[in-house]
Design brief:
DoxX family protein; globular; transmembrane; DoxX; 5 helices
Length: about 120
């Protein structure tokens, strides 16, 4: 049972890291979809790039045991920021789209770091 949980958590981590890198890169490269979404919230292009860099860093932090929880909390925080903007606009569809990603990070934190080399200094 423990091995199954570790495999499931590893898959969830892979999904979270992939999505974080994908969305972060879309923000850094100022893709039209991201520019449009964050533009309605008055994000400057520089602000969008900075948020993209934070998203990429948080995704990479998830991969390492010492920064695992910090990366997940940081990524969950950026998702909460986006959820807050959707709520301010009254866009409940956007909130529902973002909620699974927030829950993904919380489940990953709950299941803990799955790899055996946790205490490498």
């Amino acid at each position: 049972m423990v091995t199954t949980a570790k495999i499931i958590n590893s898959v969830l981590i892979t999904v979270a890291v992939f999505m974080g890198l994908k969305q972060g890169w879309a923000m850094v490269s100022a893709s039209p979809k991201m520019t449009e979404m964050f533009g309605k919230w008055n994000f400057s292009p520089t602000g969008l790039k900075m948020l993209g860099l934070v998203t990429i860093c948080s995704a990479l932090m998830i991969l390492f045991s010492k920064t695992f929880v910090y990366g997940n909390v940081l990524m969950a925080s950026t998702i909460l920021l986006i959820i807050g903007f959707h709520l301010r606009d009254g866009d409940f569809r956007g909130v529902v789209i973002e909620l699974p990603f927030l829950l993904l990070n919380l489940v990953i934190i709950y299941l803990k770091y799955p790899l055996p080399f946790k205490n490498i200094s």
